[in-house]
Amino acid sequence: MNDDRAFERATEAFLDDGPDRTQSATIEAVLLAVRTTPQERDLRIPWRTHPMSNPMRLIAALMVIVVAGVAAINLLGSSPGVGSLPSPSPTSGSLSSPSATASTIAPTPNAQPSPTALTSGWTTYTSNRYGFSIGYPSNWALRPAVSTWVAPPANALSSRAGLGGAGDPMGTSTEGFTGPGSSILVSAWSVAVAPGTSAVAWIQAYCPKITTACTGIPGRMVAVSMDGQAGSLVRFTDDVEAFVLVNNRMYVVAEWRPDIDQTTSPYGSGTNLVEGYLSTMHLLPGGPAPSGATPRPS
Amino acid sequence: MDRDLVERARSGDQAAFADLVHQVSDTLLGIARRILRDPGLAEDVLQNALVTIWRKLPHLREPDRFEAWAYRILVNACYAEAAHNRRWASTVRILPIDRTNEADDYQSISDRDELEQAFRRLPLDQRAVFVLHHHAGLPLVAVAEALGIPEGTARSRLHYATRALRTAFEAARARDNLREGRLA
C-alpha cells in the first residue's frame, strides 16, 4: 500500500476510534447548572437621559485636558529606544521608501552566535533540483524535495487539498531540514521569476498566499547575503524567510517558527538560524537541473 | 445550526438552550475527547464548556457563528483542564476500542498505538488544530477563526502535528517490517 494512503487510513482509524455519545448524566448536570446560573449581561454603554449642568461640563473638560497633558508628557519624555523597532536596512536601489512596520514583529536580540559559529560542523547537501548547495546541522534530519515548488493560487493552502501540495513550502516540494524532535523546520528552494519582476514585488505577491503579516514589507526587509548575492530577510508572524533574487530566479530559505520562540532560542533566533543557513549556501554553476532531477547528498 | 434556537437561548430561554445542548454536545464531546485523549476528562470539560457557553451567550453577536464560537470555548476549557490536571499527559490508553472489524490485524493496532503515543506527545495547541481540521472537518481558515489565531499559525501547528505523527507511523512500520523479516 502507498505510504501516504496507509498513513491517511491509520490516522482516520485513529481519529474515528471510540463513541461520541454524551452521557445523559452530563447533560442533566449542565441543565441543572443552567437553572441556577445567570447569563452575563451584554454590557452596552447606556445613553444618558438627563442633561449635564454647565459647571459639570467644565469640570469634565478640564479633567480630559489634564489627562491628555499627562499622557503627552509621558510619551514625549520617554526614551526613544524603548519599544522601538529596528531600523530597516537598505536592500537594493529599486526599493521604495520604507513604510510602516508591523507591530507584531519582534526585534532580534543583539547577543546571538555569529552565523559562522552556528554553522560549524554542519553537513552539506546539494540540491540539483533547485541549483544550490546548503549546510544543515548534523543532528537535523534531511527531507529532500520530491517535487518542484510552484506558487499556489490564492487561498489554496487553506484547503485540505492544498496543504502539503506542490505549493506548500512546508511540504515535500521544498528541500526540508527538520530539527530534533521535529520541533522546527527549515525549507529551502528556488523558483523562476518573470524577467523584470523586482524582489519586493515578488515577495509582496508571495506573502499572502503563504504566510501572515504582509503589510509594510519593504520597511521590514533586512539586508542579507547568500554566496555574495544581496538579498532580504523578512520576519513574518510565524516564520522568518530570506529571499535572494539572482538571474531571474528567487532563492528562498524559510524557518517556520516565530523569530523569537523557544524552539529557535538554541540558535539565537529564527533570524540567526536563517542567516546561518544562508551563510552555507552556494549556487551551482549550471543552475538548477531540468525538472525531476535526483538530489545528490555530498 | 438553528439560528432561532441560538437567539432564543441567547435571550435567556433555558428550554431553547437545552435543545441546543442536545444538538451540539456529541460533537463537542468528540472534539474534547480527541484533544485530551481521556473520556472522563472530556466529559468534565464538556460540562464546564456548556455552562460557560450558557453564561456568555448574550455576548455572541452573530448567532450564525455559534459553532465556531462554541469550539473556541471548548478548546479553551481543554487548555484550562490540562493546565490543572496532568492526568491527560500521563494516562495509558484508555479509549474504548471498537473491535467489530474482524480485519483489524496486528498492523493496524500497532499503527494506532504508535499514533496514540505520538499524539499524546503533541502540545495541546497542535492537537486542537489537528482535531478541528481532520476530525471536525473545518477548513484551516475556519480553524484559525475558531481558535482566534492567524491562519499561518494554524497551518504551521497542523504541519508540525502531522509531521510528528507521520514520523511515528513510519518508525512503527519500519520496526514491524524488521520483525517480519526476522520471523521469516
Task: Give a written overview of the molecule.
The complex is a heterodimer of chains A (298) and B (184). Chain A is 27% helix and 18% strand. With 298 residues, chain A is of the alpha+beta class. Chain A has a domain at 115-297: Protein Transport Mog1p, Chain A. The two termini of chain A are 31 Å apart. Chain B is elongated and about 65 Å long. In chain B, 77% of the residues lie in helices and 0% in strands. The relative contact order of chain B is 0.11. Chain B has two domains: 1-91, Rna Polymerase Sigma Factor, Chain: A (Orthogonal Bundle), CATH 1.10.1740.10; 104-184, Winged helix-like DNA-binding domain superfamily/Winged helix DNA-binding domain (Arc Repressor Mutant, subunit A, Orthogonal Bundle), CATH 1.10.10.10. Chain B has 184 residues and is mostly helical. In chain B, α3 (39-56) crosses α4 (66-84) and α7 packs across α9 (151-183). Chains A and B meet through α1 and α2 of A and α2, α3, α6, α7 and α9 of B.
Summarize the structure.
The complex is a heterodimer of chains A (298) and B (184). With 298 residues, chain A is of the alpha+beta class.
Q: What topology emerges from the helices and strands here?
A:
The complex is a heterodimer of chains A (298) and B (184).
Chain A lengths: L2 H13 L8 H13 L17 H24 L37 H4 L4 E5 L4 E5 L4 E3 L31 E4 L6 E8 L6 H12 L6 H4 L1 E5 L2 E7 L4 E7 L2 E7 L14 H11 L1 E2 L12 E2 L1
Antiparallel strand pairs in A: 1-2, 1-11, 2-10, 3-4, 4-5, 5-9, 6-7, 7-8, 8-9
Chain B lengths: L2 H8 L3 H23 L2 H18 L9 H19 L2 H4 L15 H16 L2 H12 L4 H8 L3 H33 L1
Keywords:
heterodimer, A: 298 residues, alpha+beta, four-stranded antiparallel sheet, 11 strands, extended, B: 184 residues, Rna Polymerase Sigma Factor, Chain: A, Arc Repressor Mutant, subunit A, 77% helix
